[in-house]
Design a protein that fits this description.
- By secondary structure, this protein is mostly helical.
- It has one domain.
- It is 74% helix and 0% strand.
- It contains four helices and no strands.
- Helix 1 runs antiparallel to helix 4 (138-167).
- The protein starts with a helix and ends in an 11-residue tail after the last helix.
- The model has no long low-confidence stretch (mean pLDDT 91).
- Residues 31-155 form the Tripartite ATP-independent periplasmic transporters DctQ component domain.
- The chain crosses the membrane at residues 20-40, 55-72, 93-116, 136-154.
Length: 178
């Protein structure tokens, strides 16, 4: 019973992460188009816009924050795997489980909790860019900080659940893998 609940949780979080990641991937195309526009207007038309430059880093921040969970899900994050790649699947699962418990989950929890006052204050004052011609609604961008780390926390817990299932000898079937 507990294994079924854990398996359903993992599949739910994986599906949610996949859908959010698919939506966020479109921001990458938008970022490329904004950069092309910025380069064209700056170097061909000798014109520049603070709002366009801010939009570039706003989009990059959203891609980074909201895409981190997908990166973790697909195991595409940076890993120094001098030893890890030589480990058996059970030992890899143990490393993933312990690493998640000791590093990932506490880090995400601290960031979600500590970012709330920062985000709350930004929403209260309806923060916008301090630069003339900058973008309004900076508080929405800051709101992506706890959201992104909460998504990373969810995906990390699903990954740890997957590792636990491997350690217990009941891994998810291959078709249920991300």
């Amino acid at each position: 019973m507990l294994m079924q609940v854990l398996s359903r949780y993992i599949l739910f979080v994986d599906g949610l992460t996949r859908r959010i990641g698919s939506a966020v991937s479109w921001l990458t195309l938008l970022l490329v188009l904004v950069i092309v526009y910025d380069v064209f207007t700056r170097y061909v038309l000798s014109s520049s816009s603070v709002a366009v430059q801010e939009l570039e880093w706003h989009l990059f921040a959203l891609i980074f924050l909201l895409g981190a969970a997908v990166t973790l899900q697909e195991d595409k994050h940076v890993r120094v795997d001098v030893l890890y790649s030589r480990f058996s699947p059970r030992r890899q699962a143990l490393v993933n489980l312990v690493g998640g418990l000791v590093f990932l989950l506490p880090f995400c929890i601290v960031l979600v909790i500590s970012s709330w006052p920062f985000v709350y204050n930004s929403f209260i004052i309806m923060e916008s860019s301090p630069d003339p011609g900058g973008l309004p609604f900076r508080y929405f961008l800051k709101g992506a900080i706890p959201v992104g780390f909460a998504m990373l926390l969810l995906q990390g817990s699903a990954g740890m659940g997957r590792s636990l299932l491997v350690l217990l000898g009941k891994p998810l079937p291959k078709e249920a893998q991300p």
